[in-house]
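REQUEST ID: PR-0412
SUBMITTED BY: lab tech R.K.
PRIORITY: routine
TASK: structure prediction, single protein chain
INPUT:
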Amino acid sequence: MLRLSKIYAACAPDTEDAHLGIIQNVYYDRGALTIEALKAFAPDLRLTKEQTADPAVQARFNARETSLAKFRLPLDRRYFEAAVYFVRLQPELAVKLAMTDKRLAAVRRLEAAIVNRGRICVGNARKVYFDGIQFRFYIADAVYRWAVAAKNVDTLIPTQ
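STATUS: complete
OUTPUT:
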C-alpha cells in the first residue's frame, strides 16, 4: 500500500501531502483499499467466532502476522493488535463494519457494539475514544487477515 501511495502521490487531494511525505495518509489509503478489496473479491464474506477460535486458524493467522508485524511502526502495531482482538471476539460485527455502505449513524452503532462487546480488548475501560474512520480501517485490515487465515489462502484476490 505504501508503494501505491508513493507512486500516486501526485493524485493526493492535498498537494502538501505529496510534498511532505505521504506517510501520514498511508494508513487511510491502506484502509480504503482493504475495504474495496473485501467488497470486490469477497462480497459474501462470512467470518465466525468458531473460525477465529479455531486453533488451526489462529496458528495460520499468527504465523503470517508475526513475521509481518516487524514492518509496522509501534503505534500502528498497537492499533492493529487491538483490531485483531476485536475481530477475534466479534467477527460477524467486524465484517458488517468493514463491508457496510450504511449511513454514519449505523456505522457508529456497529463500532460501539464491537467495542462494548469486546471491552476486554481495551482493559475493560469504561470510556473508549477513537477516530471512527481509523477504527473501521484497522478492523477491515484485521478482517481481511483473519479471512485469509480462515480460508487457508495467501490472499482473497484471485490470481489471473
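NOTES: The CA atoms of residues 42 and 153 lie 13 Å apart.
REVIEWED BY: pending
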